[in-house]
Design goal:
- This protein has 252 residues and is an alpha+beta fold.
- The protein contains six helices and seven strands, in the order ααββββαβββααα.
- The protein is elongated.
């Protein structure tokens, strides 16, 4: 469904806001639909991406931000600099689910937490801190995905490379009259529930209805799940896959 169709469904089937003067403008409702898509992705991780190189400077547009606010940031294509462990990623990334260097046969193990690294790799911080040279080899074994949004490799890579990432992310493009949400079409109608929740929270005597706002919030949650709180989102980023990985020695 495209934006105009979702607006029609909202006005005719949910808000009963068809006859002028309308209580909510098209601009308001489109903004609410964009917020709804971002909300659905935060809750259910509906957009998994392995091919988009960068966010093209569009970070934040799905929540009303200005294109280019954050500059162009990496999504699934990350140039690696020798002896550099930590890299900034796009703020629309919710989680780095997989990471593989092109010079290596197997993906890195991760995302991992500090406590997991303490158990798995003695002295992993080394004398040089997190980018230190714990052990030998000069090639990464694990990666950490910290809120921020950064990815840190342990150990720091000793040569230039490219890291291919698989990420869960927020939408790159906005819902407009003639464009559809990025998430699968089976979830499009569900976005109207969160838009209705926001619409009935509008502080106006003719629009504010806390009971209906709560009803549509619950309908949205029943489809997409609850919104993780800040600690839960942090642990989701750092949740290890617990898989046994066998990184190949650098350059071999």
């Amino acid at each position: 469904m495209i934006g105009s169709e979702l607006l029609e469904h909202l006005r005719y089937s949910i808000l009963d806001d068809v006859v002028p003067p309308q209580l909510w403008s098209d601009t308001e409702l489109l903004r609410m639909l964009n917020l709804a898509e971002a909300q659905a992705c935060r809750r259910a991780h509906l957009l998994i991406d392995s091919s988009t190189r960068s966010d093209y400077g569009t970070s934040g547009t799905h929540t009303g931000g200005t294109a280019g606010t954050f500059g162009i940031k990496s999504l699934c294509y990350l140039p690696i600099v020798a002896n550099t462990a930590t890299y900034n990623l796009s703020p629309i990334i919710l989680q780095v689910k997989r990471c593989q260097f092109r010079s290596m046969t197997y993906p890195l193990s991760g995302p991992v937490s500090y406590s997991e690294l303490d158990d798995m790799l003695d002295g992993w911080q080394g004398t040089g801190g997190i980018v230190g040279t714990a052990g030998s080899g000069g090639y990464p074994i694990y990666y950490m995905n910290e809120p921020g949004n950064t990815v840190t490799f342990v150990r720091a890579p000793s040569a230039t490379d490219i890291a291919d990432l698989v990420v869960s992310r927020l939408p790159l493009t906005k819902i407009l009259f003639g464009t559809a949400p990025e998430i699968d079409e089976q979830y499009h109608i569900g976005l109207c529930d969160w838009a209705a929740h926001l619409a009935y929270m509008k502080s106006d005597t003719e629009t504010l209805n806390l009971n209906l706002a709560k009803t549509y919030e619950q309908k949205f949650t029943s489809q997409f799940g609850p919104l993780p709180d800040a600690p839960a989102q942090r642990w989701r980023k750092m949740l290890s896959t617990k898989q046994r990985m066998r990184p190949r020695e650098w350059g071999s």
